[in-house]
Amino acid sequence: MNVLLVGSGGREHALAWRLAQSPLLDRLYAAPGNPGIAEHAECVAIAGTDQAALLAFCREHDVRFVVVGPEQPLVEGLADTLREAGIAVFGPSAAAAQLEGSKGFTKDLCQRADIPTAGYVRVTSLEAARNALGTFGLPVVIKADGLAAGKGVTIASSPQEADAALAALFDGPGAEAVIEEFLTGEEASLFVLTDGTSYLPFGSAQDHKRVGDGDVGPNTGGMGAYSPARVLTPELEQLAIDTIVRPTIEKLAEEGMPYSGVLYAGLMLTPLGPKLIEYNARFGDPECQVLMMRLESDLLEVMLATAEGRLAGHKVRFSDDPALTVVVAARGYPGTPAAGGAITGIDTAEAHGARVFQAGTRRDGEALVASGGRVLTVTATGPSVREAQAAAYRAVDRIAFADGFCRRDIGWREIAREEG
Ligand code: AMP
Ligand code: GLY
Q1: pLDDT > 90: what percent of the chain?
Q2: pTM for the full predicted model
Q3: What EC number(s) does its UniProt record assign (predicted)?
Q4: Which of 29, 186, 262, 398 can pair with 348 through a Cys bridge, CB separation 3.0 to 4.6 Å?
Q5: What CATH number is attached to the domain comprising 174?
Q6: Which residues contact 69 (CB under 8 A, 6 or more apart)?
Q7: Statement to judge: residues 202 and 281 lie in one domain
């Protein structure tokens, strides 16, 4: 079978690496891909947002299955376009992808299905927002409604800060926001494959969203992750599935927008049990890299079963050994990153079993150079998170990338527990 993978980040590099190992695969294409993905797939210069070109490519190259990595094409309806043309897709319809595309949609769904989440109001004007603010304590959480690449959330500790965030948000026309109760606890991410009816838990992870060691500084797309997130015990995972994930899948199906693909639940483990912070309609980046490191089953087979509504009875195996990934970003990230910095030493870094998944890279002649904020995700496994961390940083230290930086404490919560 010929498969097309849509996307160009570290997540897609990890997916390409696993898809390429499947005995079901004939040819793997990637649009647009990156130099790392090019080691496993033939890259074609088509953007994930160019639905017509992607569909034409599938027809010309006998592509029967498309795996969509990032959220933007899903929210825009790429899966609908391809399915209407008879092509199987891993990834939800535009209607179901609203779970990620609209915070208000998700909060309203939680309310209709009685799913535990932070108390909230949806607002469409600055005046309404200011009026609603008084009903919340501090800190208060303010979110832009639509896709914001992790940058649309403000946790305001004072009324002034809240007001400033709202004023910025309602600066233009057509803005919409959600104001939320602040939840306390530890965060964990749960991944579940679903074909709209059946579901299959697909691992957990913990991300590190702030740019600096000790979780300080601005939010990013994620600076590192490890899997599994043991803080999400088997009991808590079951509780999250029973109270959050399954009711979501059932409600969406009941309302005529069945969800097909991977559902990524961002959870807050509160003293009252798991509560939903947000849904994403795709794998996390860099959480996908640690899941793929641990996955022992055929990725293409389970993705196809998901897309074709055959998930019931499927099982997958993950290694018990934890995996940990460190993001190497370009200086300046999450602001404007330094572009063009040369990268060498990936082969040496990979010589002892670590995998360097490429995110923002491009070829400049023979050289590999940086071309984005998050540039590499350096991933390793070990018998403990501490050992996986040591292996990942040994690999990071073999890479020469003068313009790069990384956090040095990925996995710190779990390592404190392991050693505590
Ligand atoms: P989101 O884009 O919804 O994942 O929000 C980004 C980050 O903001 C989350 O990972 C949390 O750390 C934090 N956050 C979002 N909503 C809440 C909330 N209601 N209470 C506490 N923290 C939150
Ligand atoms: N690492 C967070 C995300 O992919 O949304």
Answers
A1: 94
A2: 0.97
A3: 6.3.4.13
A4: 398
A5: 3.30.1490.20
A6: 5, 6, 7, 9, 11, 12, 15, 48, 282, 283
A7: yes
